[in-house]
Amino acid sequence: MARRSAPPNAGPAYYGAPTQRRQLNDPNESAFSRFMREEVWAAEKLPGNVNIVTGLALFFGGIFAIRTWGDQMITV
Fold first, then answer.
1. What's the CA angle centered on 64, arms 62 and 66, to 5 degrees?
2. Which keywords does the record carry (predicted)?
């Protein structure tokens, strides 16, 4: 019985080929808006960015809470 296998140079079958992302080339786009589109709002980078924002919110929220109610936390 003949062995059935993938064609030559097919690569492993357990992952898919990377999807091609269509780049937008708008000549009127500023560097800031291009940075926001490629680094902040990009789907593959969004979970990491949400983690960073959550950490910063907790950090600055803690500073705000201690400065506002810190004297009430000290027992005399």
1. 70
2. Membrane, Transmembrane, Transmembrane helix
